Amino acid sequence: MITITTRQGDVASDHPSTDGESPEAAADRPLVEAGPGTTVLDVVVPVLDERHTIEACVRRLDRRLRGTFPYPYRITVADNGSTDGTREIAAGLERELLGRVRAVHLDQKGRGRALKATWLHSDALVLAYMDVDLSTDLDGLWPLVAPLMSGHSDLAIGTRLNRSSRVVRGTKREVISRCYNAGLSVALGAGFTDAQCGFKAIRADVARELLPLVEDPRWFFDTELLVLAERCGLRIHEVPVDWYDDPDSRVDVVHTALDDIRGVFRVRRVLRDRAEEIAGIRDRLGRTMPSGQTSGQVIRFAAVGVLSTLVHLLGFAGLHGAIGVPTQAANLVALLVATVLNTSVNRAWTFGIRERGGALWHQVQGLVLLALTWALSAGALFLLDHTWHAAPTAVQTVILGGSMVIATVTKFAVMRRWRTAGE
């Protein structure tokens, strides 16, 4: 719950969290109060060698906040390693716009490093950031921070991939962005739509819990923060934004993409190795285990299904066609190997169940599903043998693959219940 007090000291809003708490439980939670003089919003602008644009950015942002934001705010220019005079311009703005602008300098480069440092040391109730080029229309600022001020949400992000978003950018960057976010859904089970839009906000109490776990100092910082937030059961509010591509962007797409791939693998390890810390954050904030995104699960399940089906079919073709093992025996052995592989990978990757407890029982259930799959495939081969006795191996293999569709749908429904039962 956040109680926002106006500059004159009148209470403007008092909204309890809506994460399933009873009114009595919400009342027992400590209030985060913004009394007179307390900074409600701190907007961080991370910069690196931006002397040509930093002053215009800060002045425009300050004008917008003065005209539309009725609570105490601050703009923090987080300079991370500039050598072109950006630091001096930011210091001048701090002196001129006293109390509304703060200049922070870090010797080391990295947008993530700058955000983490400034957010952790901020006294504001709501922390936000936006890119220095102001590619995102500032009309989205109020919708971004309002759900956090009311207590409805824990984080808020701008998204360029909503149908109502108006985006002007090249085809190359559009394709890269969509592929990146689709990849996050598959690899990490991400449910948010736009990880890299430079327009985000977070409640300060939530930031203090999450930021110590975020390790990336560069561009992957946003993604890592959001994935951890989802695993902690936090509510992420998405705001469709108007966004205009900056033709002067100096982001190295290839280098950033490689860093992101490494970041995905590292975050997967973090989610496994620091599961107890994540559960502790979830408990302290009063959240529940996230149920997982069905769309991402379907994609991962399909990918595992393709892999295990190839193992099954290649194993069958090799045992029967190359070695001469009888048809039914070759099918059973190949299917057994593929099923054990399928169950293990789906358990850990598709549904995020990495605890050892229950693994044996899940394998037993997988073998029951194997019996169903085998019955279907064996029946298909039996019918084929009686209608086309000398059918070649290639035809048998195709028929075998087609018979597995019903079994696959059933398998997904059963495996999804594993995740639900563990929550």
TrEMBL record:
Is the keyword Nucleotide-binding in the record?
no
**Molecular function terms from GO:** transferase activity
Answer yes or no on keyword Transmembrane: yes
Predominant location: membrane
User: What InterPro entries does its record include?
Assistant: Glyco_trans_2-like, GtrA_DPMS_TM, Nucleotide-diphossugar_trans
Q: Name one GO cellular component term.
A: membrane
TM annotation in the entry: 298-323, 329-345, 366-384, 390-414
An example Gene Ontology biological process: polysaccharide biosynthetic process
UniProt-annotated location(s):
Membrane
| Start and end residues of each Glycosyltransferase 2-like domain | 43-210
Q: Which residues form the GtrA/DPMS transmembrane domain?
A: 300-418
* Annotated segments matching region Disordered: 1-33
Membrane topology, record value: Multi-pass membrane protein
What is the protein name given in its UniProt record? Glycosyl transferase
Task: Supply the source organism's classification.
Answer: Bacteria, Bacillati, Actinomycetota, Actinomycetes, Micrococcales
